[in-house]
Write a structure and sequence with these properties.
The protein has 204 residues and is α+β, with helices and mostly antiparallel strands. The protein has one domain: 3-Layer(aba) Sandwich (Aminopeptidase), CATH 3.40.630. The chain is built from six helices and eight strands; from the N terminus they run H-E-E-H-H-E-E-E-H-E-H-E-E-H. The protein has helices at residues 2-11, 45-53, 71-86, 132-147, 161-169, 198-203; strands at 29-31, 35-39, 91-97, 100-111, 116-123, 151-157, 173-184, 187-197. A hairpin with a 4-residue loop joins strand 4 (100-111) and strand 5.
């Protein structure tokens, strides 16, 4: 009886290729038609901070903006991303348009057991409305699904209509809203949750 149960349990795993269970980092660079995503380097810190500092009002919905006060804060964050990349818990990239740094994007909240993850992104206001973020989303989700992830999420502040439009435009389904789950600038804010499954990506 015990052998029979083991046989049944193992048979349930055969529908998933063994390679899908391999934990490995995403590529350190992803190239699209117009943009390139590149893993951060410590030398980016001054440029990253200057870009953030020039976009504070535009990035007000980002909970980390209030803690980024100097270039050293950006340097510390980059150091965290590099360490977490090596630990396979975060893959954070700079967004480059014609060689110019215009924002950051990445894959986080990674659950290797269930093959789930979340995409995050921000871009300088100067470059909004050009379809750049949609290209970022396509590059990241493609890398994730090709590696075997089953589900990819995009979450954004409830009042961040631009980010919500990006998610919907790229085929993510609004799955719900987490009411007042985050504290931004002293106010409780809600979060919208969008999701896409691998089979939906494959059939698009």
């Amino acid at each position: 009886m015990h052998k029979q149960r083991v046989k049944v349990a193992l048979s349930g795993l055969t529908k998933y290729p063994v390679s899908m269970f391999t934990q490995k980092p995403l590529p350190s660079a992803l190239k699209g038609p117009r943009i390139t995503l590149e893993r951060h380097t410590s030398s980016l810190a001054p440029i990253m901070f200057a870009t953030i500092d020039a976009n504070r009002e535009h990035l007000q919905f980002m909970p980390w903006i209030q803690f980024t006060k100097t270039a050293d804060d950006s340097k510390k964050w980059i150091d965290v991303t590099l360490a977490e990349w090596d630990n396979l818990s975060l893959f954070d990239y700079g967004i480059y348009l014609e060689g110019r740094y215009v924002g950051s994007a990445g894959v986080h909240s990674i659950n290797w057991e269930f093959k789930n993850c979340e995409l995050g992104y921000w871009i300088s206001k100067e470059f909004e409305g050009r379809g750049i973020v949609s290209e970022v989303v396509k590059l990241l989700e493609s890398a994730c699904f090709k590696q075997g992830f089953h589900r990819v999420e995009i979450r954004c502040a409830g009042f961040n209509e631009a980010s919500a439009r990006v998610a919907l435009k790229n085929g993510y389904k609004l799955e719900g809203e987490l009411r007042e789950d985050s504290l931004i600038n002293g106010e409780y804010r809600s979060t919208k949750v969008f999701g896409k499954l691998r089979r939906e990506w494959e059939s698009a």
